[in-house]
Amino acid sequence: MVQTVEAYPCATLEDKRKLLVYVYCCMGETSMEMGHLNDATEYHEKAKKMAEESGFKDAKSRVYFNLGEVFHKKGEYQRAIDVWTEELPNVSSPVGSSLFNYAISICFLKLDNYMEGLEHGDMSLSASDRSGDKDIKLYATTLFAISEGTFIIYDIIPWSIIRPQYN
């Protein structure tokens, strides 16, 4: 597929490079779904490099998210966090911000870093409020509840602080 795109006479090199970024991205997603995580990493790394070199802002966020997702599936949570936090300042949409913070929060929780997990869960929830997207809001709310529940289970935050007072 890559050879076909490279051989195709596009009007400008930029269009061809953008198409190649998306081809590598799709190949990475397909490899990830098939469980070929090393191949997925390789494809997403190629897409990331091309997106950065070409300045494709919209493609870059997608590539970073996908690359972090591969690291998450590999159990390399810190690498996933590093990739996502590198791109997070460049994410402009509330939906994107919510999704990135959601993913970061989950990885922090898996690393038993509950404070960071709760912080990013809160940021995901705030961004989901701004997005107006009900599905994103549901995911962010559930994650935030799980984060708070983790604090209660491990006695990090006393239950009395969170529990509503009924008089």
Automatic annotation (TrEMBL):
Main location: cytoplasm
Gene Ontology CC terms, in alphabetical order: axoneme
Keyword Cytoplasm: yes
Coiled coil start-end: none
Entry keywords, A to Z: Cell projection, Cytoplasm, Cytoskeleton, Repeat, TPR repeat
Stored PROSITE patterns: TPR (PS50005)
Repeat (TPR) residue spans along the chain: 61-94
One of the Pfam families matching this protein, by short name: TPR_12
UniProt-listed PANTHER family: OUTER DYNEIN ARM-DOCKING COMPLEX SUBUNIT 4, PTHR23040
Subcellular location: Cytoplasm, Cytoskeleton, Cilium axoneme
Keyword Cytoplasm: yes
InterPro entries cross-referenced by the UniProt entry: ODAD4, TPR-like_helical_dom_sf, TPR_rpt
Gene3D superfamilies named in the record: Tetratricopeptide repeat domain
Name used for this protein in its record: Outer dynein arm-docking complex subunit 4
SMART domains: TPR (SM00028)
Organism, scientific name: Sinanodonta woodiana (Chinese pond mussel)
